[in-house]
Amino acid sequence: MELIRRGFDGSTSAAVRGLFGSVASGFLPMAQIAPARRLVPRTSFHFGGLFVRRHFVYGSSIDPPRGVACPARDVRDASSALHHTSADNAWPSAAPSARELRAIALTGLRLIAEQASTDLGDLLHMSALALANVLHADFSHIGRLGADGDTLLLEAGVGWHKDLIGTVVGSCGDSTVERHAIKSPGPIVVADVIEASALAPLTQVRQHGDRSGIVAVILAAGQPYGLLGSFACRPTPITEADRQFVADVTGIIAAAVERHRLRRLEASIIEDGPDMVARLDPELRCEYVNSALSTTIGFDAPEAIGRTLVELGLIPPLQLGSWRATVHSVLRTGRERKVELGLLTPQGERRLLVRFVPDLTIGQVPRSLLMLARDLTEVHRLKDECAALRQELIQQERRHHEQVARLIVDQREERKRSDDAALIVAQLTRREVEILGMLTEGLTNRQIAALLYVSPGTVRNHLGRIFPKLDVADRTRAAVRAVELGLTRAAEV
Known about the structure:
Blueprint: H1 12-19, E1 39-41, E2 44-47, E3 50-53, E4 56-58, E5 73-74, H2 78-82, H3 98-115, H4 121-134, E6 139-145, E7 151-158, E8 168-171, H5 177-183, E9 188-190, H6 203-206, E10 212-220, E11 223-232, H7 240-272, E12 276-280, E13 286-289, H8 291-297, H9 301-304, H10 320-333, E14 337-345, E15 348-358, E16 369-375, H11 377-427, H12 430-440, H13 445-452, H14 456-470, H15 475-484, H16 489-492
Helix pairs in contact: 1-3, 3-4, 3-7, 4-7, 12-14, 12-15, 13-14, 14-15
């Protein structure tokens, strides 16, 4: 027989709560109704197109709401199913078996766990109710271990006084069944509390007069997160199927706790991380902005949400087309894209590496997208500075090479001049060198002749022999050439 029909018509949470004992039109934990209520036979009910009979609910004058069902008979008219709620005329006549109840309870818990994205309260309360209903127990509890790994904080329970929910209900000492459950790989069964004096439950549980029960540890990420237990006020046999049911419930809770932890971590990273994150609709309207983005653009999140990036004046006019084309491409293809775009901020235009991711959580066709942006302005500034520095170094190196080349040429020319001067000087006599020195001082032939005690004609004859050796044609150029060769009377001294 099919246990659960797929397609729970969108009202899964309310339907599952019907199975686990929700009352009136809303969810009310059994601990808030009355402590230690006994299970009594009740009536049939409807869930997801299936009409079934529920064996036990807590004693109350409140009729069970429209909601959850076990397998028995297909009912297409939910309203007509609600008319079959008395024990006399309820159909079908066959009551769901314990196996069917366990299967439906686990299915309902898994459905609730999938929806427990931000709060585990519903899942924990429903798990406590499922333990009590399926195991025919008077009390059930789900507690979280304190930081010391010893104290137990009651998070949900059946049969407990409402004031105890959210308080520490005991310490898991070495002689308690809870301590053994923490160390055990599977659930611990207490067949009779009175007989098993060496292995007793918490004092708060014993005060209820419980006689038998089962306790299991909830492991999240490999570490003890908490404990769940179910106890009855009479010796009740716990079958292997019951042990497996309890183990499955702990697994569902453990997986939900780990998902909840990861989601909180993810939300913290998104909200408090350095990268800018926003959810945008096709018109670039902000549906969410994180702290990094609101700080960068100078708008608080409430101011930005509901307004487009254009209305906020954040998109450079020349890049508006690129923004819109990229967003429409992502929404049309359903594929993410990564581009560099500009964003106007109070600090000036920022250059962003933007990753657009289509949001597929709403349906198959994305109606919005996530914008994850990293500010690359400083990176680009450093790159530009490095490029400018590299160009400056290249220019300096080029000038250095030019200077070196010029020095080499000058040295070669100087060496050539020196060689030429040495050659020329070697061709000049001592008297010709002496006359050239006087010539550089601007002396006339007569003055030179007077200083050398010779005739002006002799001086003229010497100059006639000097000019060809210096490759000059007159006295002036000869004087300049003599200076270049260092043939002055000061140099001779």
